[in-house]
Amino acid sequence: MHERVPAASSSTEFSEDVSLARRAFEGEPSARHALLLRLTFIRARLRVRNRAMGYPFGVSDLEDLEQDVMLRVLQSLPRFLGRSSLQTWAGRMCEYSMIDLLRQRRRAARTDWIDDRLILAQSDACQLERASLSAALEALAREGPQADLWLVVLHARDRVTFETIARREQSTPGAIKARYYRALVRLRALLERA
């Protein structure tokens, strides 16, 4: 049988990083300066990850991500426990920030088209679009309550938040979002047929 090798003690291995993080959070100027010097790798890390991901972000996106990561790191200093080096910990925050931004963009892409269709439907100059949207909404309504058309109306048209809808329905925001996106998929399919 193989014996487990005990992990290195995090309290000794990265204790200098933990001490630096604590002192910087408490406002010690020399510690803050040393911390900022240690975090200068963030810009390069974001560029390398951007290249590895196929360049999904532009220069301004990377600058925004750099600021976002720096803020996350500085706000999270009290939670840094030293289980890894400060650079590894901050590097993971780089990746999390990039993933978060990609997810936000995917979510926006999934819902942008419905907002465009609703704006067009409200315009007198777009009767054809209004007719096809009305037909799709009627077809979705005929599918019954499982279609969750009312979620699309409340969130996309009336701008009611998922949290508010969840409270009203005695559900979780995540469950409401899932139902909303399923209704959007049905509505999109109906619009494409119309």
Please describe what this structure looks like.
- With 194 residues, the protein is mainly α.
- The protein folds into two domains: 96 residues, Rna Polymerase Sigma Factor, Chain: A (Orthogonal Bundle); 71 residues, Arc Repressor Mutant, subunit A, CATH 1.10.10.
- It has ten helices and no strands.
- Helix 7 crosses helix 10.
- The radius of gyration is 24 Å and the shape is elongated.
CATH architecture of the largest domain: Orthogonal Bundle
How would a textbook summarize the main sheet?
none
Low-confidence segments: 1-11
- Domain unit count: 2
Strand content: under 5%
How far apart are the termini? 66 Å
What is the fold-level CATH name, i.e. the topology of the largest domain?
Answer: Rna Polymerase Sigma Factor, Chain: A
Tell me, briefly, the overall form. Answer: elongated
| Count of helix runs | 10
Radius of gyration: 24 Å
Oligomer: single chain
The share of residues in helices is over 70%
Secondary structure: number of strands? 0
Q: Averaging pLDDT over every residue, what do you get? A: 79
Order of helices and strands: HHHHHHHHHH
What is the SS-derived class? mainly alpha
Supply the CATH class of the largest domain: Mainly Alpha
Name given to the CATH homologous superfamily of the largest domain = RNA polymerase sigma factor, region 2, helix turn helix motif
Itemize the secondary structure elements and their pairings.
Layout: H1 10-13, H2 15-25, H3 29-38, H4 41-52, H5 59-76, H6 86-122, H7 127-142, H8 149-157, H9 162-169, H10 173-193
Summarize this structure as a short list of keywords or feature phrases.
194 residues; mainly alpha; Rna Polymerase Sigma Factor, Chain: A; Arc Repressor Mutant, subunit A; 75% helix; 0% strand; elongated; disordered N terminus
